[in-house]
Every structure is written in C-alpha cells, then in structure tokens.
Specification:
Layout lengths: L1 H20 L17 E7 L12 E10 L3 E7 L15
Antiparallel strand pairs: 1-2, 2-3
Length: about 90
C-alpha cells in the first residue's frame, strides 16, 4: 500500500514540476517587473543530408532561435537507434 501511495505522489509531483518548469522566464531587468522573454524557433528537417558528427550521430533537425535571445539548435540522433521500433499490426 505504501508503494502505491508513494508512486502516486511521485507521479503527481513530477507532472506538476514538468508543467511549471518551462512556462515562466522572467527578465533580469528590475525596471520591468514581471516581463516575459519572447522567442521563436525556426526548425528544419536535416536527416536527408546524412551529416554525422565525430561520434557517428546523425543530424536530424537543425534550426535557429530568435527573439529576446538568439542561437542555433541541432538535434543529433544515434544511428542505429538504441530503442527498438514499436511493433505494428497489419491492417486488414
């Protein structure tokens, strides 16, 4: 019984912290109390380019971040994936 209670409480706390973690980004400037940072992502699929890094990871997504902060984003995937593909059933 104690395990089920602890698991339920842990699950609720994890979900609560995950929903609140990325929702608020407050500006450092004390003159603008409660101001939020604004940003935009521009992401493109790059898997067809077959670019790999020194560790053999495949570049699948890349993009840029703009707005109040700027930068570049790249998603590298391990090839082949360590996670097996889900089983699918044939539709009749």
């Amino acid at each position: 019984m104690k395990i089920k209670s602890a698991l339920g409480l842990t699950t609720v706390m994890l979900l609560l912290s995950a929903t609140l973690a990325g929702s608020i980004a407050v500006a450092d400037d004390a003159k603008v109390a409660g101001a939020l940072l604004n940003g935009a992502l521009d992401i493109t699929y790059a898997g067809h380019l077959e670019k790999t890094n020194d560790d053999g990871r495949l570049l699948v997504w890349e993009g840029s971040v703009g707005g109040d902060f700027a930068g570049k984003i790249k998603w590298w995937f391990i090839d082949p994936s360590p996670v097996p593909a889900p089983r699918t059933r044939a539709v009749k």
